[in-house]
Amino acid sequence: MSHITDTGRARPITSRPMDLEPAHVNQEILHRITSLIGLGISILNSLIFLRFLLVLVAANRANEFARFILSTTEPFLAIFQGLAHSPSFNGVVIELTTLIAITVYSLLGWSMIQLLRTLFAREK
């Protein structure tokens, strides 16, 4: 950037050198955020695994607990519906999509935590 002087000539505007140090993030806050992400993924995967078990044992879908687990996990599994065939044997259904969802959500959570640590953790 330049500045026009009263003589009509352009001269550069000098300013203080910019501080190019990376932003410092409080390490305790970073630890809490990554812990919350891990907790959220663990709770989600636990609910999805409960759904897997309920479907595996052919639980009564009219039961309050079964209905709660099935309805709570449905939005998180919608993207995986139709991805794989769910084999069944004598009324026992193995929902492979729930196992795929657990794997994908675990990888996403791990990736988010690693990205935050890579970007903001201080080197020791």
What does this structure look like?
With 124 residues, the chain is mainly α. It has a domain at 44-124. 56% of the residues lie in helices and 8% in strands. It has helices at residues 27-56, 64-77, 96-120; strands at residues 2-4, 10-12, 88-89, 92-93. The strands form two sheets. Strands 1-2 form a two-stranded antiparallel sheet. The chain has a two-stranded antiparallel ribbon with strand order 3-4. A hairpin with a 5-residue loop joins strand 1 and strand 2 (10-12). Helix 1 (27-56) runs antiparallel to helix 3. It is elongated and about 90 Å long. It starts with a strand and ends with a helix. The model has no long low-confidence stretch (mean pLDDT 87).
Which structural traits does this protein have?
mainly alpha, single chain, 4 strands, 8% strand, two-stranded antiparallel ribbon, 124 residues
Largest sheet: 2 strands, antiparallel
Strand arrangement within the widest β-sheet reads: 1-2
Q: Which structural class matches the secondary elements? A: mainly alpha
Contiguous helical run count: 3
The SSE string, one letter per element, is EEHHEEH
Topology, number of strands = 4
How far is the N terminus from the C terminus? 39 Å
How confident is the prediction overall: mean pLDDT? 87
Beta-strand residue fraction: 5-15%
Radius of gyration: 26 Å
Low-pLDDT runs of 5+ residues are: none
Helix content: 55-70%
Can you tell me the overall shape? Answer: elongated
